Amino acid sequence: MNDTELKKMFQQTDVPVESAPGQKEALLTQILSQSNGMEHGLSAFERFLFTRPLQTAGIAAFAMTGALWGVLGSRFPTLISALIG
Amino acid sequence: MTNYLWQAIASPLRVFSREETKGELAVSAGIVCVAAFLGSVGIPAVVSAVRHTPEKPALDPAGMLLAFGASILSWLIVCLLFWALSRAFRNGLRFRQILSVWGLSYIPNVLCILLYAGLQLLPGARVTNDILAFVIGAAFVFLLVWKAIFFYLFLRQTMNVSLRELALTVLASAAVFVILLWAGSMVGIQVPML
Fold first, then answer.
1. Between B129, B142, B149, which is nearest A49 by CB?
2. Cα B106–B108–B113 angle (5° rounding)?
3. Does the CB of A28 have a partner CB in chain B at under 8 Å?
4. Interface membership of A71 toward B (CB under 8 Å)
5. Domain span at A78
6. Contact between B134 and B142 (Cβ < 8 Å)
7. Is position A10 within any domain?
8. Please, which residues have CB within 8 angstroms of residue B52's CB and are 6 or more apart in sequence?
9. What does the angle CA B26 – CA B32 – CA B38 come to, to the nearest 5 degrees?
């Protein structure tokens, strides 16, 4: 490497590095997620679903069973009896 | 072991990860074995011993052993399917990791078998009360939704699939599940072991 190339290289390294828009925020979010034991890429709903599965299943179960009862009416106990065998 | 179980029940996000932790495979396999044993040997034996009906079912040790083997085999087949899909998607998931995590999703299966057994032991096993039918129905739906959450968590967190891969995995799983359900019913498995 001659002097000219060496000078050019030093000039290039002196240029301040600018991060792309949103890169710092993405990095910060990733670090915070990892420190909380959560993988990045999960939506808020998915995080709620995966951290409170019992509550979610409970709410869904009551809603779905209630809807089924509403649709079937008096035939609902018969269906349950048939399922039990 | 109890720590794993508690985490899998209350907040499964940490245990359904790719990080391999010592003893996780043993816990996972243990849960599957308990579910398989209860569903194929334990509960049928208790029901047969306790329920006093004229059409009292006779115990079939060979059939029970077959159902137990089929339950364990269905777990391995589903894990093999996930492993094959992981290989196809090139997301670097090893078979041991799948075995270690997917077995944890059998906790609702164990509870479903116990609930089903409890209802089998009821005299006559007839539900005529609306409220009782609602409670029993809600309990079964609760376990079904819980299992579905485990399935979705496994795909999103452990397999780390994209939206297109998620759709493909769900379709492939549904086809295999239907075949396994049919095969399971052929060997006398009453509560699905998936």
1. B149
2. 95
3. no
4. no
5. 60-85
6. no
7. no
8. none
9. 130
Question: Whole-number mean pLDDT of chain B?
Answer: 87
Q: Looking at the domain assignment, is residue A67 inside a domain?
A: yes
Percent of chain A past pLDDT 90, that is, above it, reads 21
Contact B11 A51 (CB under 8 A): yes
Evaluate whether A65 touches B138 at the Cβ level (below 8 Å): yes
pTM score, two decimals? 0.80
* Best residue in B127, B147, B151, B166 for a mutation probing chain A (most A CBs within 10 Å): B127
The answer to whether position A45 is within a domain reads no
Among B134, B150, B185, the strongest candidate for a mutation testing the A interface, having the largest count of A CBs within 10 A, is B134
Q: What CA–CA distance (Å, rounded) separates B75 from B73? A: 5
Is A66 part of any domain? Answer: yes
Beta-carbon count within 10 A of B110 CB: 19
Query: ipTM more than 0.90?
Result: no
Asked if A7 is an interface residue toward chain B (Cβ–Cβ < 8 A), one would say no
Domain count, chain A: 1
